[in-house]
Write a structure and sequence with these properties.
The protein contains two helices and two strands, in the order E-H-H-E. By secondary structure, it is mainly alpha-helical. It has a two-stranded parallel ribbon. The radius of gyration is 15 Å and the shape is elongated.
Length: 66
């Protein structure tokens, strides 16, 4: 059972918009590509988890701090 769906980060949304309107620096471009790859990986992983039985609780985008 999925309680929290996957969502794009604000930084990823912002970099997508900026990429269309200006030339990103090398560091910004690399950060954008890393965020895109990470989000795609999360989506693929979530797709595999959808087939689990309802006895499992799935919380996406959860950050646990020490």
């Amino acid at each position: 059972m999925i309680f929290k769906p996957i969502s794009e980060s604000v930084e990823l949304k912002l970099l997508r918009l900026l990429k269309r309107r200006m030339n990103l620096s090398t560091k910004e471009k690399q950060n954008y590509l890393n965020l895109e790859k990470g989000f795609e990986g999360e989506q693929k992983f979530a797709f595999f988890l959808e087939n689990l039985s309802s006895e499992w609780i799935i919380l996406n985008d959860l950050l646990l701090k020490k």
